[in-house]
Amino acid sequence: MTYKPGRIFLSVPHMGGHEKNYAQKAIEDNWVSTVGPNLTGFEHDICQHTNARHAVAVTSCTAALHLALRLVGVQPGDEVLCSTFTFVAAASPILYLGAVPVFVESEEETWNMCPTTLREAIVSRQARGKHPAALVLAHQYGMPAKVQEVLAVAEEFGIPVVEDAAEALGSRYGGHQVGTMGLFGTFSFNGSKIITTSGGGALVTADPQLAEQALFLATQAKDPAPFFQHTQLGYSYRLSNVSAGIGRGQMEVLEKRIKQRREIYTFYKNQLQSIEGVFFLAEPKGAFSNRWLTTLLLPANTHPEEVRLALEQENIESRPLWKPLHLQPLFAPYPYYGNSLSEHLFKRGICLPSSSSLTEEELEKVVKHLKRLLEEV
Ligand SMILES: *Cc1c(COP(=O)(O)O)cnc(C)c1O
């Protein structure tokens, strides 16, 4: 792809400065494979920051979710509850395992899974003789879901919860770090997320045995033997020690990146909220969002796609909110529970450029054009 120079992107990597030192050291010391001090250092940093007990660094958040669902014992044909208002990768691992996703709608306060709808879904599945084997709870755009409420419902029915915190590293709910409240949590370090390893992810859990098994499965499930012997099906999911070095440098600036993204949100909100019909999602009491992406709903008299194309004319990238998974052709055959809130969000919402490296000038350019587009209708 070629881009016109000066393009304002949605979310780009933002190095802190020390990444190259860690990566260079890995190359100098010949730790360029999937073992080495950057991996243990990076996992240590993740635990330090999130208060997770154990972390396993892997090649992507999708891989981490796949491992988590394997480890809770999801079998072919099992049903797995999943947020519908999210990115496809929250649900793809359910299909990797030959299981059946059951999509659950969001609530209005956080745009994440609705605990009431979740209960209805479980009761309805049980009435059909199904008992969901797991639940994937995603936190959208950095906003924490109502984790405690969701966990209470899941616990009542004995369903293990995997938190997909791909977008929400550093977000908190009720004093707890997102990703550390479920049996497993997963993070993404792909290039668009709040920090990056150039591609990578992590699985966290409080259970040392589950962490050990995750590492075992992520490294081809090799039995202890002098030759290669395998009893279980494994994967090649381990992160490289070079990438983990980038991760160590990025962890040093995570707090700063969160602060910058939150400032970007506040700037947009202050500049645009007075336009009639514009809606910004506030943090509910007890929630702290990393504000990975600034999102807003546009007034009813605008066409979000026209706004997006007009911004594109100015070399500014924006994006509609997630197309709900239950409306994706890939997931058409699977059950869905809810009142279509996510469909409304998809139709009315837009994500604005939110890179922590955005300059004041760039932010002002985005706001100038948005004001023109929204006030002109
Ligand atoms: C980005 C993202 C993923 C996938 O992360 P990868 O590291 O690219 O596999 C999964 N779930 C959600 C909600 C995401 O936003």
How would you describe this structure to a colleague?
The protein has 12 helices and 14 strands. With 377 residues, it is α/β, with parallel strands linked by helices. It folds into 2 domains: 233 residues, Type I PLP-dependent aspartate aminotransferase-like (Major domain) (Aspartate Aminotransferase, domain 2, 3-Layer(aba) Sandwich), CATH 3.40.640.10; 122 residues, Alpha-Beta Complex (Aspartate Aminotransferase, domain 1). Strand 2, helix 4 and strand 3 form a beta-alpha-beta unit. Helix 1 packs antiparallel against helix 8 and helix 2 runs parallel beside helix 8. The two termini are 33 Å apart. The chain binds pyridoxal-5'-phosphate.
Keywords:
377 residues; alpha/beta; Aspartate Aminotransferase, domain 1; 2 domains; three-stranded antiparallel beta sheet; binds pyridoxal-5'-phosphate
Topology-level CATH name of the largest domain = Aspartate Aminotransferase, domain 2
**Total number of strands:** 14
Cα(first) to Cα(last) distance is: 33 Å
Work out the helix count. Answer: 12
Structurally, how many domains make up the residues?
Answer: 2
> What is the H/E string?
HHEHEHEHEHEEEEEHHHEEHEEHEH
Strand content: 5-15%
Mean pLDDT: 97
**Uncertain stretches of 5 or more adjacent residues:** none
CATH C-level class of the largest domain is Alpha Beta
| Gyration radius, rounded | 21 Å
Q: Can you tell me the CATH architecture of the largest domain?
A: 3-Layer(aba) Sandwich
Bound molecules: pyridoxal-5'-phosphate
Shape: globular
**Major β-sheet, in short?**
8 strands, mixed
Fraction of residues in helices? 25-40%
> Structural class from helices and strands?
alpha/beta
In the sheet with the most strands, the strands line up as 1-9-8-5-4-2-3-13
